[in-house]
Structure formats: structure tokens, C-alpha cells
Amino acid sequence: MSRLVVVSNRLPLGDNPSGGLVVALQDALRSSGGLWVGFAGEPVESPEDELAWHPGAAFQRASFDLTQEDYEAYYLGYSNSVLWPLCHGRVDLMRILPGHVEGYRRVNERIAKLLVPHLRPDDRIWVQDYHLFALAFELRKLGVECPIGHFLHIPFPGPADCAALPNPGELFDWLSHYDLLGFQAGRDLSNFTESARQLAEIEPLHDHRLLLQGRVLRADVYPIGIDTAAFIEEARTAPDEDRMRSLTGAQMMIGVDRLDYSKGIPHRFRAFQLLMENNSDLHEKISFLQIAPPTREAVEAYQDIREETEHLAGRINGQFATVNWTPIRFIHRPIPRNVLAGLYRQARIGLVTPLADGMNLVAKEYVAAQDVSDPGVLILSRFAGAAETMGDALIINPHDPWELAEAIARAMRMTANERRRRHSALLRDVVEHDVGWWSATYLDALAAA
Ligand code: ADQ
């Protein structure tokens, strides 16, 4: 079997690293004697001209260094201040600076140069996400001919948004050097083909193949999943968090997100406020736990979101709290997985309302964590990739606070029969399409590409 080489922005560090992607790729990496290459996490003053090796995992791991300048241009700059907002429909938040795209090209080129001496002719390379769009292009320049696939974890923008890039054609040039492009949802594949049609040269062939900028490649949809069996077990055996039980017997509604403007957290707070204003019978009956650790605080667009959400939560609590009841609890810390699994299981409602999201794994974790005899209700934004396969959730438009408030009220009143019927359909999908299915399906397609 040919060796699998995975390249991602972040290298999973620590002994026996875990996390969905690691679990998904571990078997394929181990059985092929595979290698994972990524950034070690902190910029350094004088980077090494070689990869650094990290023993302690079931596969080989190697990291590359970045200078502060490269980190700012490639990671904080082009990746997270241009591509992230672009792919999440927020071109208004893009900060285009000429040095940033240069830095992005430079880092992709540097990773390619560091990787090439360690490659074998029959390797298969799997590149993860938007930080590394240009990697195949750089590897091909250095003569690498083995199959290279890309998987995009976030949405692909449509033509109107793509046109906001300084040089949209370059993105499609980069992508044309892959053999397989994987997307989370049908929506992303259509956006990709439509954007390429308007901004580059594309010709559809048969069997998910196409000609992009004169090169043949395959593009298809591979919705990512979670390690479902492990998460079900985690939730079943989770510690009972008595401290989270409410004094008034209120049902818990839970939201779990990185504190990111794409996740629609202020929108759900406003909908909750509307619900409270119009349904006094629900006062003291529902308590909303939002867990949202801050991320990317060095990126300008992230600096307002914490203040805005804290302000909203404070206002809502001020308006409705009673001596025995706090309507919203807002936690800014990451939570250990087993505690998180237990909280999902206790929550009568899982609230997942992004304005744009590649997939959204919280939706799948919430479903996996439920007690099948008395499951809770998933409320899911139609803008999450997950909505394409999780139609038995209450699908909502997060921009419409009335619709969202109505869905919460409906979930609170839903009969146990209807909850079980919806949950069993959702669980079937989350079990069948877990993260192992995702990686196996993608890697089969890469082998055939
Ligand atoms: P993210 O934007 O990070 O991922 P998501 O899919 O929701 O979004 O995954 C977040 C993960 O972090 C979940 O496993 C969740 O449990 C965990 N998490 C979040 N807050 C936490 C907390 N406070 N404590 C502990 N764990 C927490 C990107 C894309 C998504 C896509 C994934 C995978 O943006 O759309 O689903 O990659 O492809």
C-alpha cells in the first residue's frame, strides 16, 4: 500500500494525540507507515531549514517553523483575514494587504521545499484546508508527480464573493494542480464550479471529473463526520454534572462554538430574547448554556464579538432573571470532552445556528450524545453543511429571530414520540457517515484519481 502523507496547518502534538481528524486518519497513517506534517504552533525567531520530528504518535510526525512575519502574513493575514471571511460570506470583513498574499505564497512554497526531500514517488498526499490551497502548485513546481488531494473544511464561495479576491484566477490555478478536490456539501461543489466557470476556465467531463485551467481533476462531496461510536460511549458514561441542574427544574438548551462571527451567536441570543418577551410561560422553564471559547483574538474582526455577546447576555439576564433562575449562562472556556458529552446529553435542545459553516460537528455530537429513549431536539441552521444530511432536525434561518424563537418554543413542546422519530433518523446518518467513513471514502477516490 502506498504511504499516506497528510499536510495540515496545525500538527496534532502531544503523546497519543486525539481529535476527530487524527482518529479519522490514524488507521490509514498507521497501516501505510504514514507521515503528518504541520505547523508546531508558535512562531520562532530563526526557523530551521528542516522539518522537526515528533515521536510519540502511531505515525510519523514532522513540523515546520514560521517566523513571526510569516505567521502574521500567512496565518493571521491571508488565511484568516481574507480567505476565512471570504468563504463565510463576509467579504465586508476581508482585510487585503499586499504583503499577506505574498506571505501565503511564501509559506506554501516553504512547506513544499521542506517536504520534498522526505517524499517517495508512490506516496499519496492529502492536504487539509484553506491555509494550503497553493501547496500542490508549489509541489508540482518541484517535480512532485504523486497523487495530491485537497479537502476544504469550510464553505467554498460563490462567484460574487470570489470576485472580491485581488486575483481570483490565481485560486483556480492553485486548485488545478490537485488530483482530487473534496468539499463538505453539494452547495460548495456547485459554488466551486460556478465560480470557476465565471472566473477561470472549466469544462465538466463525466464521473465527477473536470478540466480546470487545462488540467484534469476530480471534484466531489465528502461530508465529514465524528468518531460516533466513541462519542456515544463518552456521553453514556459522562460524569453527572449536578452543578448544571437548575433550581427551577428548567430544561437546558445548549450552544457550543468557537467564538467566531460565522457562528451566529448574537443572532441566537436575540432570538432567545424575543422568545422570552413573547412566551412568559417559558420563564424559569428554559435555561440557555452557551459555551464559546475565544479564538484568533489577534485578528481584528474577532475583537468585537466577545464584547457584543457578553453585552447581549448581560442585557437579557438583567431583563428576565429571577432569584432562582439565570436565563443565559455564557462560558468562555474550553470544556473537557467527557463533560461536554454529558452536557449535550442533559440538554433538551441543541442550538446550532451558524450564518455559514462547512459542516458543523457540534450538530453531530449533540445527536450522538442523546439518550435514545428520551432524546433532545436539534435546531440547525440551513447554512451549516450538516443541514444537507440532517433534514430531520428543526431547520431554521438564523437571520430570522422570529423563526428561531418559534423553533425553540416548538422544541420545548415537542412530544416524546416526535423527538424519538426525528432523533432516530438523525442518529442513523451520524452512525453511518462517521469520520472513518469520510476518510475511507475520500482516500478511495484519491487512489482512483
Ligand atoms: P470549526 O469551525 O472549529 O471547524 P465545528 O465543526 O463545530 O467547527 O467543530 C468544533 C469542535 O470543537 C467540535 O468538536 C466541538 O465539540 C469542539 N468545541 C467547540 N467549543 C468547545 C469547547 N468550549 N470545549 C470543548 N470543545 C469545544 C471547521 C469548520 C466546520 C467543520 C470542521 C470539520 O468550520 O464547519 O465541521 O472544521 O471539518
Automatic annotation (TrEMBL):
SUPFAM superfamilies recorded: UDP-Glycosyltransferase/glycogen phosphorylase
Position of the signal peptide: none
Family recorded in the similarity comment: Belongs to the glycosyltransferase 20 family.
This protein's name: Trehalose-6-phosphate synthase
Organism of provenance: Paracoccus maritimus
